[in-house]
Amino acid sequence: MSQVYIIVVNWNGWRDTIECLESVFRLEFRDFAVIVCDNASEDGSLGHIAAWARGELMAGCGNPDLACHSTPPVRKPIPYLDVSPADQLSVVSRQERLFLLQTGSNSGFAAGNNAGLRVALSDPNFEYAWLLNNDTVVHPKALSAMVNRMEARPDAGICGSKLLYYNRPEEVQALGGSSYNLWTARVHHLGAGPMSSQLPREESVEANMKYVVGASMLVRKFFLERVGLMNECYFLYFEEIDWATRARGKWRLVVSLDSVVFHKEGGSIGTVRQSALQPIKTEYYATRNRILFTRKFYPFALGTVLLAAAASCVQRIVRGHKANARAVFLGISSGFAGEEGAKTRL
């Protein structure tokens, strides 16, 4: 049994995952086990991750400035256990620190994490689950800093990290979470931009936080038991704000600015951006789920959200980005129709 279960969802991204794991197994906080949830990868991911755990495969590093977090390799072998979808795994009394879980299908971000959370919940003595994107590298103090913040705030349900861009570590992706405009269903990452020499107080960030960014979320066990698992209807995007909104008035959202996580952004879903233009998959799911979320929690704002989405579609047409405009239009149509889950063709 472990105090913290670290849940990492993988989909065709074993190279990112083993770099992430190299940094995870350097954490100063040692009372943890890792559950890698593989969403039916087609690139032999679990085999590669198992080879890494046996010491037969080296992790790469895409940014020499961050190599200290993933090299030299941690001591191998790392005891691991393969888990199939049919297994009813209980982690109680298990000695392994790494579980390789086959989810059986690619049902999205929330479903992959939920598979790991169900395994963690089989241990009655764990206290936290850390949902960590596979395309991240973590600072050695990242987990201990979040645990300390949660221990200091017993009313906190989820804690976020200071997210820095992997390829531009001097730039902030988000200070833990984001604000949200319910009239347009648009989000804004708090603190995004070049890192200031003086960070704001954590309490001032938390006052504007509507959800914790899903790349790094430390979740309290009691939160899981009382609020429930993540909503799987979205497939991709808006799962975190759905979770936080369901917990509104019951649990606080907090951030530890001493918890540093470097995020590649997009690697976890296979859509690393090569330009300022959003990938087609992102355009569709972000648009559709804005509407699904609004219909569920803020139906009175649906009209302005639809107008904002339509304006985005027109903007892409004017700029000549027809494929993106089509994805936004499909997202509007699907959201208005209440379609959920994965879209097979875009």
From TrEMBL:
One of its GO terms (molecular function) is glycosyltransferase activity. CDD domains: GT_2_like_c. The keyword Glycosyltransferase applies. Keywords: Glycosyltransferase, Transferase. Residues 94-167 form the Glycosyltransferase 2-like domain. SUPFAM superfamilies: Nucleotide-diphospho-sugar transferases. The keyword Mitochondrion does not apply. Its EC number is 2.4.1.-. It is an enzyme of class 2 (transferase). InterPro entries: Glyco_trans_2-like, Nucleotide-diphossugar_trans. It comes from the Bacteria. Belongs to the glycosyltransferase 2 family. This is Glycosyl transferase, group 2 family.
